[in-house]
């Protein structure tokens, strides 16, 4: 499953780097390839981080630590972008984005019994983020530094990047707070469930 995600990542990189000619493939074919590949990446990453690793840590750590540790691991994987020539600033932005997304998906993992909705959401999230980045003009990007840009007098924020970080992070913390309240009230159990047992939405959500 992880290899499917890796294949998707490499294909997207090939298109973005110009190795795949859009005019030869056709716009619809390339668009379909983007959508399918991002969905495969979301599937593979969720299986690894909110599936296998989440369940492994969940038997050893508290729910909150499980969410944070898996989010940190998910974020750290994006350091590999430096190998592909990404800038330190751009990689830092992606790490912050991935951590925030990981917190939200991890919190949802505690409350949602099936991992499949998270896989779909992750893929769609990546598609929207990639579409925004591809349609951003270089001038607009350089004129609006992101949160990791320390040059100049003070911080300036790219609204979309801010949305990518603050919204999932705050929503993830809210979901975890609701989950914690439900556990304390005895409405749901914090007992770790096996991955293959979780096939339906938790009715206690």
UniProtKB/TrEMBL annotation:
Record bears the keyword Transmembrane helix: yes
GO molecular function: endopeptidase activity
Membrane-crossing segments per the record: 28-49, 61-83, 160-179
Record keyword Transmembrane helix present: yes
Organism name: Deinococcus marmoris
Descriptive protein name: CAAX prenyl protease 2/Lysostaphin resistance protein A-like domain-containing protein
A Pfam family: Rce1-like
Highest taxon of source: Bacteria
Chain ranges of the CAAX prenyl protease 2/Lysostaphin resistance protein A-like domain: 31-128
InterPro entries in alphabetical order: CAAX_protease, Rce1/LyrA-like_dom
Keywords: Membrane, Transmembrane, Transmembrane helix
Any one Gene Ontology BP term: CAAX-box protein maturation
Region forming the signal peptide: none
């Amino acid at each position: 499953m992880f290899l499917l995600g890796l294949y998707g990542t490499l294909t997207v990189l090939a298109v973005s780097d110009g190795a795949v000619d859009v005019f030869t493939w056709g716009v619809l074919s390339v668009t379909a390839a983007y959508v399918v590949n991002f969905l495969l990446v979301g599937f593979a990453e969720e299986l690894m981080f909110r599936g296998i690793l989440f369940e492994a840590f969940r038997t050893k750590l508290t729910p909150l630590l499980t969410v944070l540790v898996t989010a940190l691991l998910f974020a750290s994987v994006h350091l590999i972008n430096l190998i592909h020539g990404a800038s330190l600033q751009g990689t830092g932005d992606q790490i912050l984005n991935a951590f925030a997304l990981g917190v939200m998906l991890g919190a949802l993992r505690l409350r949602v019994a099936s991992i499949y909705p998270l896989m779909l959401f992750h893929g769609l999230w990546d598609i929207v983020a990639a579409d925004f980045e591809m349609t951003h003009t270089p001038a607009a990007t350089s004129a609006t530094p992101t949160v990791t840009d320390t040059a100049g007098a003070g911080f300036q924020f790219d609204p979309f990047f801010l949305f990518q970080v603050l919204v999932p992070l705050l929503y993830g913390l809210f979901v975890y707070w609701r989950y914690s309240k439900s556990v304390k009230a005895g409405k749901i159990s914090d007992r770790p469930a096996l991955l293959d047992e979780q096939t339906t939405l938790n009715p206690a959500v």
